Amino acid sequence: MLEGRRILLIIGGGIAAYKSLELIRRLKERGASVRAILTRGGAQFITPLAVGSLTGEKVSSELFSLTDEAEMGHIELSRAADLLVVAPATAHLMARMAAGLADDLATTVLLATDKPVLVAPAMNVRMWSHAATQRNLARLAADGIAVVGPNEGPMACNEFGPGRMAEPAEILAAIEASFGAGPLAGRRALVTAGPTREPIDPVRYIANRSSGRQGYAIAEALARLGADTTLVSGPAEIAPPAAVRCVKVETAGEMLAACEAALPVEVAVCAAAVADWRARAQANQKIKKSKAGLPALELVENPDILATLSRPGPRRPRLVVGFAAETEDVIAHASAKRAAKGCDWIVANDVSPGTGIMGGEENAVHLITPAGAESWERAPKSAVAARLAARIAETLAGGAS
Ligand code: CTP
Question: In testing the pocket of ligand 1, which one of 232, 233, 259, 274 has its CB within 8 Å of the most ligand atoms?
Answer without folding.
Answer: 274
